Amino acid sequence: MRFSLVELAPVAPGGSKRDALDRALAAAEEAEHLGFHRFWFAEHHHVTGYAAQDPAALIAAAAQRTSRIRLGSGAVLLNHYSAFSVAERFLMLESLAPGRIDLGLGRSTATPLIDHALRRDRSSQPADDFPDQVHEIIGYLHKAFDCAHPFAAIDLTAGIDGVPEVWVLGSSGASAGLAARLGIGYTFGGHINPGGAACALRHYREGFTKTPFGTGAAQPMLALNIVAADDEASAHRLTWPARALRAGGRDRPIPTVEQARAELSASAKAQPSTIVGGVVPPQISGTPATLRAQLEPVIRASGATEVMVQDMVTDAAARTRSRQIIAETLQAITV
User: Fold this and answer.
1) Is the peptide bond before 24 cis (omega within 30 degrees of 0)?
2) Residue 168 forms beta bridges with which residues?
3) Considering the domain boundaries, does residue 245 fall inside one?
4) Domain range spanning residue 86?
């Protein structure tokens, strides 16, 4: 099966965002070497712990350092942009790296203050028009506007041979039907809502309609937070920084394992990080010997044909080994 990565560019304690961005771009090269299919950059605004604020800029930089791996956004937060600007920017990226660009679309809040600061028009109430924006982007990329549409005369694709592959990202299942009707890829955030994955991805698969806007086949993707190491105790400890970040506030660098050890209570450190009886924890850990047995039933139950991996590991050696184990494990699973 296919396996991919979403990169948050986590900032290590004592490090800078520049350091985090350097690591993130090096990680794209490493992911290509390890056989990952896609490498997506997240969008997080006004956050101390993550350096990935603008996926498009990072995609452009990573395109110059890789040659095979698909590069994309996980996700562009459409509530902060016009559909026109997003379509135009990603068509430009498609020109830089033909046949390798993914446009992952989502929506999220960055707190009311930052949401307000991000808005160009502050005189009216924000509207939840995500489906309309996705339709508009499809219209620009595929010249799919009805002839009576006011934007039908706009051709952003002139002089560009291909278009980015469009994905909808969601964690509640509400976007599954939208992606299915449009015939495009769908990614469910299982690291956010582990219990909702099977239902949302089934809804997507069953409602999928073949259109000219996608690959022609359903692409159900499951995103999970996964870390791995050569022994169970070390793998479990790699889940602690994410727990400490949630418990102690997100506006800071990503804690080290040792910082998390000091911050977390004994019960918090002991919370399960393995899949037992089909129950998926927010962070999954495993070893070369145990990870496949955990993941394979969940992947099969969800119907996913691709897994998107997220982690918050800032130690370079531990992160490389974790991703190597994960790649080897997922590569061995057939669906």
Assistant:
1) no
2) 105, 186
3) no
4) 2-223+302-312
What is the domain count for the chain? 1
In degrees and rounded to multiples of 5, residue 296 shows phi and psi of -60, -45
- CATH number of the domain that 47 lies in? 3.20.20.30
CB atoms within 10 A of CB 118: 16
The 10s digit of each residue's pLDDT in 91-109 is: 999 999 999 999 999 999 8
Indicate whether 323 belongs to any domain.
no
Which residues make Cβ contacts (< 8 Å) with residue 160, sequence separation at least 6?
91, 94, 95
Q: Is residue 241 part of a domain?
A: no
Report, as an integer, the average pLDDT of 245-269.
Answer: 92
Q: Partners of 105 in the beta sheet?
A: 76, 168
CA angle 327, 333, 335 (to 5 degrees): 130
Distance CA 304, CA 190 (A): 11
Judged by DSSP in three states, 168 sits in strand
Residues 132-136: contacts with CB within 8 Å, 24+ apart?
Answer: 133/78, 133/83, 133/105, 134/78, 134/83, 134/105, 134/166, 134/168, 134/178, 134/182, 135/182, 136/83, 136/84, 136/87
Within-domain flag for 76: yes
pTM: 0.97
Q: What is the DSSP letter of 79?
A: G
